[in-house]
Amino acid sequence: MIEFAHVTKQYPDGTTAVDDLDLRIDAGSFTVFVGPSGCGKTTSMRMINRMITPTSGTILVDGRDISTLDAVQLRLGMGYVIQNAGLLPHRTVVDNVATVPVLRGDSRREARRAALDVLERVGLDLSLATRYPAQLSGGQQQRVGVARALAADPPILLMDEPFSAVDPVVREDLQAEMQRLQAELNKTIVFVTHDIDEAVKLGDRIAVFGRGGRLQQYDAPQRVLAA
Ligand code: ADP
Ligand code: ADP
User: Fold this and answer.
1) What ligand has the least distance to the C-alpha of 93?
2) How far is the CA of 136 from the centre of ligand 2 (A)?
3) Which ligand is nearest to the CA of 87?
4) What number is the ipTM of this complex?
5) CA distances from 37 to 12, 34, 51, 79, 142 (A)
6) Rounded to an integer, what distance in angstroms lies between the CA atom of residue 186 and that of residue 135?
């Protein structure tokens, strides 16, 4: 479980990005943060893995205050997927995915085998595994990004607009893949998007953010649509 308790983030220039956020994200849920640009979705997500520190308030993961945990250990338990995949350009696809298992202490050989398994799972054609990221399409790169986040089998997956840079047809494909993975993996997924259709399609809980970084609604998708 991930719990925000009165969390506020104010940037040094005075911008209040997140205002008094109170939110409990159940283990195993697919929670979507949705809302217009600039309403604090990314800031909220990045506070979960401590890329950003709250100005005030507390974030608990499985009942533990994350400010007391080792940041590296915390992040090893959380896959993170961003818009343009963020792959290492000078490493092959398989080595990009093997990076985290190697950091976690697996041998290179074990890590590569695990990487191929997870690449297959996200639907990548394995003949692409020895290519470099620049030799893949945007959609293929995003699949690799998802595979890399899943490679260490973290209980939590953070996804920040992972599919917004790919064309609509590929996006539908990736969304369908996510639904399948969610059913199969039973992870806690937090997913950021500005697209309400995507939010409703993927999420089982929707957190609607609004101006000033305030949470406006937190509910099941059909109730959010009815509001
Ligand atoms: P969203 O993900 O909903 O687009 P963000 O969390 O990125 O929103 O940003 C929330 C607010 O904080 C916006 O007004 C944004 O301009 C501001 N902001 C984000 N990052 C910084 C920063 N590093 N310094 C100052 N303001 C920032
Ligand atoms: P180095 O560290 O020697 O510069 P790199 O890790 O950049 O090597 O790349 C390893 C090999 O893969 C090199 O032979 C390089 O030319 C080739 N390579 C890297 N990126 C690409 C790419 N986008 N397309 C084709 N070949 C690539």
Assistant:
1) 2
2) 14
3) 2
4) 0.71
5) 20, 9, 19, 23, 21
6) 32
